[in-house]
From TrEMBL:
It comes from Clostridium tanneri. Belongs to the class-III pyridoxal-phosphate-dependent aminotransferase family. ArgD subfamily. The keyword Mitochondrion does not apply. The modification N6-(pyridoxal phosphate)lysine is found at K243. Keywords: Amino-acid biosynthesis, Aminotransferase, Arginine biosynthesis, Cytoplasm, Pyridoxal phosphate, Transferase. It catalyses: N(2)-acetyl-L-ornithine + 2-oxoglutarate = N-acetyl-L-glutamate 5-semialdehyde + L-glutamate. This is Acetylornithine aminotransferase. The keyword Oxidoreductase does not apply. May also have succinyldiaminopimelate aminotransferase activity, thus carrying out the corresponding step in lysine biosynthesis.
Amino acid sequence: MEKNNLMNTYGRFDVIFEKGIGTKIYDTNGVEYLDFVSGVAVNCLGHSHPIMVKALSEQSKKIIHVSNYYWNTEHIKLSEKLIEHCDHNKVFFCNSGTEAIEGALKLARKYGKSQNTNKDIILYMDNSFHGRTMGALSVTGQEKYQQDFLPLIPRVKKINFNDIEDLYENFTNEVCGIIIEPIQGEGGINAASTEYLKEARKLCDKFNALLIFDEIQCGMGRIGNLFAYKQFDVIPDVIPIAKALGGGFPIGAVIANEKAAKAFVPGDHGSTFGGNPLGCAVALAVITELTDGGVINSVQEKGSYLKEKLNGLKNKYSLIDEVKGMGLLLGISINTSPKEFTNLCFRKGLLVVTAGTDVIRLLPPLNVTVEEIDTAVKILEEAIKELS
Ligand SMILES: *Cc1c(COP(=O)(O)O)cnc(C)c1O
């Protein structure tokens, strides 16, 4: 029925998941799996967290949706909570990652054009991933995603990730913004160097362009801070977030400083569903649990623990080339088929996802337990042994 009814856009595992509790997820036959995918860095509190269930149920009894023609309390409360944890003071709400990117790109264009009509070039990184809509796709540095959808938006330029020389070569007064994932997720868990990000900051200041950090995957606690940039000692102007923001409920946001945000005036941007009370109430509950609830406090420690175990496997088996990433955004690059590897893990009861061409990505919920990490490592080792 799926083949008949649904557009053919995904390769799927042969399974239907029926329920989940925490890091554990169950298929329709009752088989249990450990979920180290978390809906690709979405289920930061695991499955069916009582705090989310409560927020969904309570808010839905009050008001679910109201147009942006009217005030609502929930989006103000959520914006307050987000602003508390960053150096920025303005938020625009949307519903997904790619929409947050669109908002950021539009903001950069408007910011540039208000200085000079030619100031509209957006620089982006080789191997990046920013989403599937035409604007986000235009700054996604992977040919496989772009090639069948040309022409994309003009005045965007791909540069080499972490290459300071290339950055200087392409940064001119016509650049209005540059978009970088502090850690490339989909592209293979590649961290930007602090030095590179500092140079990008310097050039943005010099040419009065906006520095955009896509924290859709690496933000919201995934690497140990609610905002990933805090680990890099560089403050961006604009931060698109989504994925874990709603813990599984679709919501995205563009965070910006005053300087950038004031480029938008009424009518410049909008979203029918953006900032709806239900999404904001759930996200507020999620963020409050991540921060005040202390979930984020243990991310570094658990991440280091898992990374250490993975390095142990690397020292033991030549199948692993490298262990990459920070916090609970980790990857192992392997010299065998990643597809085969994830399939084998799946059959053994562990969900993992590929990234780039040769990386297995590990994205457990942020409240994963040490015992669950141990079990996952055991399954990974069995899979490695079988494929070695
Ligand atoms: C997932 C992702 C996006 C796109 O988010 P969607 O909600 O799928 O549109 C953009 N940027 C990064 C870094 C992502 O990981």
